[in-house]
Specification:
Blueprint: H1 2-46, H2 54-57, E1 58-66, E2 69-72, H3 73-87, E3 92-101, E4 104-115, E5 119-121, E6 124-126, E7 131-143, E8 149-155, H4 158-165, H5 176-179, H6 200-220, H7 224-229, E9 230-236, E10 241-242, H8 243-256, E11 261-270, E12 273-283, E13 288-289, E14 295-296, E15 302-313, E16 319-326, H9 328-335
Parallel strand pairs: 1-8, 9-16
Antiparallel strand pairs: 1-2, 3-4, 4-7, 5-6, 7-8, 9-10, 11-12, 12-15, 13-14, 15-16
Length: 342
């Protein structure tokens, strides 16, 4: 009898183990398939203009949330691709890093092309200027159970984009690197965009660390949370910002926007990388001093911003680097630095 019970226990344990391996294998197969479909999206649809793939890759009720509003449905994607490739027939979108976790995929992309055609803006049609365009995009997608792209969230800097298009005058002192803010990041040593596998508990800790830092530092003003989770030589490669400068920026934000409330609604982590959507809102009640010393007068109006942040960690889950992308045009307009586009 005892042998029978032991046999049943061992058999059950083996069955659970095998099932676990099968589920893990199926999960890995799904994430790799989702990554492959994103590569097909950027390579075949956006870079080559193959619109025949839209019905295959996108769900019928697909929606993409972008700085310019929502792109709805498959027809919305077709219109977006057609508009971009009309303006830049040599458009090429290159993935620099792709992360996947279950039904989620997040990526950092570089879009390049020559503005030789016409580009439709809400204010009218903009003629080409034959100038090279470069734009960094951080995009997050959710897939449905059929392996189609169900929903997306995108971030890019419209201020940089419109300056390069010639729709917004570039400041007299501006240089090419200021028009494309990340063009000079190679001047600083940065981690390569390669994924190092890490134990599940470390990745789970990274996700928890993101939420902890945002809540403690931005919402409560506890900057010690940054010292706990960030390495001393941490760097934001978007603007060459150090850890201490980042802490000072948060202090400035909280002083100007006392009711600041930040959240992280989406996080995608894989290995030593994480991309998350950061959202913050509040009331611009007090004057704000920018890093260059410029004082921005308070407007007393609500302000709302979103950013997609790509973070790198070491093998222990300590944050070592960051790249963030957000719409500077929207932010500057809300601060009162730029008049709204008519």
């Amino acid at each position: 009898m005892k042998r029978t019970k032991l046999f049943l226990i061992v058999t059950l344990a083996l069955a659970v183990l095998v099932t676990g391996f099968q589920l893990a294998a199926a999960q890995d197969e799904m994430t790799q398939a989702n990554k492959a479909n994103i590569i097909r999206e950027v390579d075949d649809v956006f870079s080559q203009g193959n619109l025949d793939l839209v019905d295959e890759l996108y769900a019928e009720d697909f929606v993409d949330h972008t700085p310019n509003g929502d792109t709805n449905g498959r027809q919305g994607i077709r219109a977006t691709v057609t508009g971009l490739r009309t303006a830049m027939p040599d458009l090429k979108v290159t993935p620099e890093l792709l992360l996947a976790d279950g039904q989620w995929v997040a990526g950092r992309f570089k879009a390049t092309g020559t503005f030789s055609g016409e580009f439709a803006l809400p204010t009218g049609t903009l003629p080409g200027n034959n100038q090279p365009i470069e734009l960094i995009i951080h995009h997050i997608w959710k897939f449905n159970d059929d392996g189609q792209i169900q929903e997306g969230w995108a971030q890019w800097d419209n201020l940089s984009f419109l300056m390069q298009l010639g729709a917004i005058p570039m400041p007299e002192a501006a240089t090419a690197s200021e028009a494309t803010p990340e063009a000079d990041t190679a001047m600083m040593p940065a981690p390569e965009f390669t994924i190092m596998p890490l134990p599940d508990d470390v990745v789970v800790g990274t996700v928890a660390g993101v939420k902890h830092v945002v809540d403690e530092a931005f919402n409560k003003g506890n900057l010690a949370a940054i010292d706990e989770r960030f390495s001393p030589d941490w760097m934001d490669y978007s603007d060459q910002q150090t850890r201490d400068a980042f802490k000072a920026e948060i202090e400035g934000l909280r002083a100007a926007i006392p009711d600041l409330k930040a959240s992280v609604p989406i996080i995608v982590a894989e290995g030593n990388w994480v991309m998350f959507r950061f959202e913050a809102e509040g009331t611009f009640q007090n004057d704000m001093t920018l890093p260059d010393g410029t004082v921005v007068k308070a407007t007393g109006k609500p302000i709302k911003v979103a950013a997609h942040i790509l973070g790198h960690t070491d093998e222990n889950g300590v944050f070592t680097a960051e790249w963030d992308v957000f719409d500077n045009l929207s932010y500057a307009t809300q601060l009162g630095l730029i008049p709204p586009m008519q």
